[in-house]
Amino acid sequence: MTTEARHPHLLKLVDPPIIVGHRCISCERIAFPPDPYGCEKCGSPSDNFENWDLEARGSVRAVATVHRHHRPAPITPFTVAVIELVGGPVVKAIVEGDDVVVGSSVEGFLAPEDKDDAGKVIVDLRFRITQ
After folding, report:
1. HSE (CB half, 13 Å, CA atoms) of 96?
2. d(CA 84, CA 53)
3. If DSSP states are collapsed to H, E and C, what string results for 76-103?
4. Rounded to an integer, what distance in angstroms lies between the CA atom of residue 119 and that of residue 103?
5. How many other C-beta atoms lie within 10 A of the C-beta of residue 85?
6. Is 36 exposed, middle or buried (0-12, 13-18, 19+ CB in 10 A)?
7. β 78-85/90-96 pair status
């Protein structure tokens, strides 16, 4: 069975998964997702960026429980968190578990979400609490 990331340009399917961001060559600012307009810090154009691999690990900075949303998946309730990655950028993602609190250490994993028309399993990045 073939597996593919929902957003293949943003995620490498390895274990543990790698998030693909970018780094400005001029000022060394690391960002995610890659910004097509240029660097927010120094104003360099986007052609002055290099791909930058980010670990899918970090700590929770804010957390909320979603009880209703407009899609059938994920099933509610689920937890969404603002996660400060080890490499610096901040992402919003689903965190599995009932004990997610500000300050929790988390790590990413690949969660199967769908199958496409060709039968490929589509995966998304999710996080879980680490000890």
Report:
1. 13
2. 15
3. CCEEEEEEEECCCCEEEEEEECCCCCCC
4. 39
5. 20
6. exposed
7. antiparallel
**126: helix, coil or strand?**
strand
Q: Are 100 and 91 in contact (CB under 8 A)?
A: no
The model carries a pTM of 0.87
Q: Where are the domains of the chain?
A: 3-129
Collect all residues with Cβ–Cβ distance below 8 Å to 7 and sequence separation of at least 6.
none
Amino acid at 90: V
Query: What does the alpha-carbon distance between residue 70 and residue 88 come to, in Å, rounded to a whole number?
Result: 31
18 φ, ψ to 5°?
A: -115, 130
The pLDDT tens digits along the chain (131 residues) read 578 888 888 999 998 999 999 999 999 999 998 888 999 999 999 999 999 999 999 999 999 999 998 887 788 999 999 999 998 899 999 999 888 999 999 999 998 877 777 778 888 999 999 96
